[in-house]
Design brief:
Shape: globular
Largest sheet: 8 strands, parallel, barrel
Strand content: 15-25%
Number of strands: 11
Order of helices and strands: EHEHEHEHHEEEHEHEHHEHEH
Helix content: 25-40%
Strand order of the largest sheet: 1-2-3-4-7-8-9-11
CATH architecture of one domain: Alpha-Beta Barrel
């Protein structure tokens, strides 16, 4: 398992806000994240637009998509957009990708078949990598085709020592099912699942490692991440109420019993105990998504200042000589 340090990121919920981001950058937080549907049922932003705002409104932290529903986008266009944002941010982008599907009309409206979204995502990831590598690229696949094209990211004045990351931003695969795990093992730079218990996360680690071995791929440098809905409060009952109100509607008559397995809540000490189980399962970077309608900065602050210091990477298993 790569990485001997636990780090935290924060999801900018519900929308990126300049003052909120400035406050988060003063905390021991390594990254900030936002997603965004194309045609959501509520008036929320689109992921590339939100990403542009976050790169402009931050200076230190990495900035990521959680997630970009890649099959909805033409990959040559999104490769250019992400390359330019990465270059202008000084190489601070991370790109979480997934297939979505919960809003079928999004696919219908942009002319993409819902059943094709997995294969389309795999091909689009290969296109992004080829274009970000530099030089002329030709590609002829199931969904996309072009000959002898070259992507040239912008290089802002004074950015000679920075610019886009070599090979482009890391591609982090999101999801919960077997196809997403295979995609992470074969094409991804990391694994960024959500709504998953520690035991389930441990199973995904084993699956990804097995898939990577079968593909002959070395996972050195692979990023083991978790997008985690949670609430941390001085008052543990308030935190549990936060999560029940924020996520409980989707879980029927017994939300707290079910949510307790996938959305930690409580005091800093209680949440640290739950997150340590994820660390033991393999997580090395948490994206803290405040499961609360108010006071989200307080949730992130308590997580960063009082939960993170309580976490530790397990000692490696030593094999007797």
């Amino acid at each position: 398992m790569s990485g001997e340090r636990i780090t935290f990121g924060a999801a900018a919920i519900p929308e990126p806000d300049r003052d909120w981001l400035a406050a988060v950058e003063r905390l021991p937080i390594d990254s900030v994240w936002q997603g965004g549907h194309v045609l959501p049922p509520s008036p929320t932003g689109e992921v590339i637009t939100r990403l542009a705002l976050m790169t402009a409104w931050t200076e230190r932290v990495r900035v990521g998509t959680s997630i970009l529903m890649l099959p909805l986008y033409q990959p040559v266009l999104v490769a250019k957009q992400l390359a330019d944002l990465d270059s202008r941010s000084g190489g601070r982008l991370s790109v979480g990708v997934g297939v979505g599907g919960e809003f079928p009309k999004e696919y219908e409206s942009v002319g993409v078949g819902l059943r094709d979204r997995g294969r389309r995502t795999d091909e689009a990831m290969r296109v992004l990598r080829a274009l970000w590598k530099g030089g002329p690229v030709s590609h002829h696949g199931e969904f996309f085709g072009f000959d002898d094209v070259e992507l040239r990211p912008v290089r802002p004045p004074g950015a000679e020592a920075h610019g886009m990351q070599p090979g482009g931003p890391p591609l982090l695969v999101s999801g919960r099912k077997a196809p997403a795990m295979r995609r992470a093992a074969r094409l991804g730079d990391g694994w960024l699942p959500y709504l998953m218990s520690p035991d389930a996360y441990a199973r995904t680690v084993r699956t990804i490692e097995e898939e990577a071995e079968a593909a002959g791929r070395d996972l050195a440098g692979f990023q083991w991440m978790m997008y985690l809905y949670c609430s941390v409060r001085r008052d543990g009952e308030q935190a549990r109420d936060d999560v029940a109100r924020f996520l409980g509607g989707a879980y029927g008559d017994k939300p707290r019993e079910m949510l307790d397995r996938i959305a930690p809540s409580g005091t800093p000490e209680e949440v640290a105990g739950r997150l340590q189980r994820y660390v033991d399962a393999g997580v090395r970077h948490f994206v803290i998504a405040p499961a609360a309608h108010t006071g989200t900065l307080d949730v992130v602050r308590l997580a960063a200042e009082e939960v993170l210091p309580r976490l530790s990477v397990p000692d490696p298993v030593r094999v007797a000589p």
